[in-house]
Here is the input.
Amino acid sequence: MSFVITTPLYYVNDKPHLGSIYTTIICDTIARYKRLLGEKVIFITGVDEHGLKIQRTANEKGIEPKIHCDEVSEIFNKVWKDWDITFDKFIRTTSKDHEIIVRDFYQRVKTSDDIYMGVQKGWYCVGCEEFKDNPENSSNYKCPIHQKNLEWKNEENLFFRLSKYQSEIENLLKEPSFIEPKERKNEIINFVSRGLKDFSISRTNVSWGIPVPGIDNHTFYVWFDALLGYISALNQSKTDPSLEKTIKFDWPADIHFIGKDILRFHAVYWPAMLISAGMKVPEKVFGHGFLTREGQKMGKSLGNVLDPNLLISKYGRDPVRWFLIKDISLGSDGDFQNKRFVDIINNDLANTIGNLLNRTSSMSRKWFDNKVPSREQILKENEISNLTQITVNNYINNFNSYKLDLAASDILNLAINTNLYLNDNQPWVLIKEKENIPLVKEIIYNVLESTRIIGLLLFPILPDLSSQINIQLGSSYKSKVSWEEQLKWGLLNHNSSLPKPSPIINKLEYE
Ligand code: MSP
Here is the structure.
């Protein structure tokens, strides 16, 4: 069985922004980590291309929706490559295979007698592609996410009998690990306790969608189409795709990572749809928080969206990854502030990790013939080796429970403590006496070895920096030897050459 992890399928009404990068980087980090543990990973991302929102965006641009979708999907694909995102599948909901899977799925739900024709009346947010529960003063009410007025709809739609699955969903929510984090789980429990209502799964006024078989003028509601993308991404048959074949091996997904705004779709509607179709539900849905910029919501109209291309060219990939992972606790909201960003990168990466490597490697080269020192065993207790083993255990526990910020802090704390060890032992003073040379060799080795382990632990979070650390230690990551084996103490070769050090991370300036 593979470990299946998914990002949301992003709407192609707009290019990727910091919010979409955030989820994708989290999934990339977890996918890299799982691969290091030797698991077979299927990392799915992609784009959600149908529906009224996309149809309107294309109309506004005066181009065919298909052309618009091709353009923006290509941008997403390219941006993820620029960010070195290691996705295995990129699904487009306009692909033919996906259409077949949606139809097969619909057929199953229909066979369960869960589809009926009804009339849908209500206030709709096109940005969310969702009916809202008729808020007070609906005609002037602005959706808090999109800051746009709701639209009144009154049309004949097909409905899905969500209400039939009240008790199944209640039972699912009792499973402790299904929704994370806990705060989000309570929101969903409250929503479900008010009683589930059937929801409409087709539209008559939206031509840009998958036609419902056998019913003229109806296309599938964009969510009844997009959620299936998680499954069609797993299709392996080029010639004859089917739902039956696709779910044989790798379904269900192990984890869907999504933003808190779309948790209801993933933790209530989606499992009910899957149960109706006789399929397994995902193991876990994780609703992360929202990012703001300098305390303000990001938006095109506010002109404060952080452009991914600009972020790469200004700062590079790893600083942004470090900030998003280490500074924001997964699940909570986060704020991108330039000053804080610059401080964190300079303190954590440049001054603490970078400097540790740089100064130790310089000392070792200067005193020991451009090499890692030879083996000495003078010290009775090796506090640094003990600390690395504790760090490795904590890091693995934190990663396994998706506490990525804590895993990143584990690495940073190891670097801070290794710096302290160096400062306390003052090898630059000891080296002045000849009889201290063996002791200095041991201290320097301990620090270099700790740095090697720091580099390995950084691998899933900061792939670029991690490989630079290894190169500078003259020890490259050996993909044939298991990562966990390589985390064991003492594997940096004594007497091996140390390349000339150069800064592994550049200090950033305030804007
Ligand atoms: N197309 C649907 C998802 C379908 S999944 C089968 C969708 N797309 S979206 O492009 O609008 O949003 C994609 C994700 O980006 C959501 O998880 C949303 O929460 C996230 N974010 C959008 N803005 C965000 C921030 N400012 N911060 C963090 N994430 C946010 O919804």
Observations:
- The pocket of 5'-O-[(L-methionyl)-sulphamoyl]adenosine is lined by residues 8-11, 19-20, 22-23, 48, 226-227, 229, 258-259, 261-262, 290-291, 298 (CB under 6 Å).
